[in-house]
Amino acid sequence: MTHFILESSVFKNGEKIPRKYGYKAENINPPLKISGIPRTAKSLALIMDDPDAMGAVGKIWVHWIIWNIDPNISEIKENSIPSGSIQGKTDFGEIGYGGPAPPDKEHAYIFKLYALDNKLNLNEGATKTDVEKSMKNHILTETRLIGKYSP
User: Fold this and answer.
1) What is the pTM of this model?
2) N or C: fewer beta carbons within 10 Å in the chain?
3) What are the residues whose beta carbons fall under 8 Å from the beta carbon of 32, sequence distance 6 or more?
């Protein structure tokens, strides 16, 4: 069995996300490489959030939600989304990627990638809750990539 892996060419798991990907900088998504996608996957979904925001703002802050990603791709290029995929609304109240913007100290940002046995029937602007409900009982496997970012 192959391992489902999410990596980035600009930061390693557990290391610092380069400044330019921050919300107050260029606010573009980092490039992500995907490997080991199960052959039975019909789509991929990605959720990027910040559990460390709990202390500062009282909730896990959602930075990026994207679903119906073609399971035949091997990367999400910098500052772009795969064709045919759909993006949801972040806690910035915007659709699309919202980069790291910790208000207090270094936070860990978690990119969670899910391989699904179906496509999600959700419209652009759906929330993380909508996506998680839709994915329930359809997750074949998941993987994660963690990056750190300081104010």
Assistant:
1) 0.97
2) N
3) 6, 7, 8, 46, 75, 76, 111, 113, 145
